[in-house]
Amino acid sequence: MVDNKKPSAAAHATRETETRKAQEREYTYTPPSQLDSPQEKPGTKHRWVRISLMGSDDDRNMSMRRREGWEVVRAEEFPEFVGPVHSEGRFTGVIGVGDLILMKIDERLLAAKQKYINQKTDRLQAAMDSNLFREEDPRMPISVNRQSRVATGGGLRFDD
User: Fold this and answer.
1) Domain assignments of the chain as residue spans, ordered by start
2) What is the mean pLDDT of the chain?
3) Fewest Cβ atoms closer than 10 Å to its Cβ: which of 18, 22, 75, 99?
């Protein structure tokens, strides 16, 4: 006896459906950022800086940033960037969101600032060590170990 049953569609998937499944891409979700900024130009770094605090201008913060060498980033500098730009007030045409504006600085100036901070930290640490070792007694030597360790897991242990 001959079985004349037709094969099911599931048993014979066509080449078209196989390639379509292979070409389907997986979608991923990334929450939108309110602080999108344009790609930094070579040799510069960007930073968001506060221009107002609790509804009043924060001139102290702005003048300090400008003295450090930060400059505002204008929308004309990045014509391809589609993002928030201040449309009124003294920061008209500057890339910004609410009470923040985007500022830029030369990487070399930023590196010089970091070098200064590191040297100052080293001098302060040397002064602290000098002060500490001045109080050292041979009967109770002071040892300095500046390594930190992080332990994770293990949970809570109670002595039974």
Assistant:
1) 44-106
2) 82
3) 22
